Inverse folding.
């Protein structure tokens, strides 16, 4: 039973609790259309928190489940959500020039490299990653926006690198992820507005 302490979670987090229910049919359809696992997450400062996961029927194993956390700087959904922040907001999370934990040679090693990535991500409006957090895993992510235009969450697909070619990943799969993100955003009263530049 919820008590007064739940207010400490913050209203932004509480409003995100309806996201899994809204997103479920769209993420299941996205999984079926791509054959890849689909996920939904929100950001909690420098982490992303998974709210739901719909596993593919492939052999790609994953320990991700609802409640799992990953460093935002090392994940495709995290990059989508961080790219919506301005420099002051990023500095509040990471400080200036701080070293970041590396998981593969694709993970940004410091905040300066991360900022450059986020500027590109903001201009593109989505993130395609290869071996960014885990070697041999590819991902496409896009943000979810509410009626104010702010990113309130993100979705992605993940697959084994050998199971999908580059043109499909950056073409058909990217389009399907972005279309799913727009559909979920529409249910939240949001549109398809681009990410705010991290240079703002």
């Amino acid at each position: 039973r919820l008590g007064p302490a739940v207010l400490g979670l913050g209203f932004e987090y509480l409003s995100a609790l309806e996201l899994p229910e809204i997103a479920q049919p769209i993420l299941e359809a996205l999984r079926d259309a791509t054959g890849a696992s689909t996920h939904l997450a929100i950001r909690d400062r420098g982490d992303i928190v998974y709210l739901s996961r719909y596993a593919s029927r492939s052999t790609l194993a994953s320990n991700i489940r609802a409640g799992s956390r990953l460093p935002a700087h090392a994940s495709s959904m995290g990059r989508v959500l961080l790219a919506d922040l301005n420099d002051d907001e990023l500095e509040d999370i990471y400080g200036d020039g701080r070293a970041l934990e590396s998981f593969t040679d694709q993970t940004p090693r410091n905040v300066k490299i991360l900022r450059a990535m986020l500027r590109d991500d903001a201009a593109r409006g989505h993130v395609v990653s290869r071996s960014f957090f885990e070697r041999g895993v590819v991902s496409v992510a896009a943000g979810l926006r509410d009626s104010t235009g702010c990113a309130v969450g993100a979705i992605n697909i993940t697959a084994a690198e050998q199971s999908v070619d580059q043109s499909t990943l950056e073409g058909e799969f990217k389009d399907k992820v972005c279309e799913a993100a727009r559909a979920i955003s529409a249910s939240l009263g949001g549109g398809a507005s681009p990410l705010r530049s991290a240079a703002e």
In short: The first helix runs from residue 11 to 16. Helices lie at 11-16, 19-34, 76-82, 87-94, 111-124, 166-187. The two ends are 42 Å apart (CA to CA).
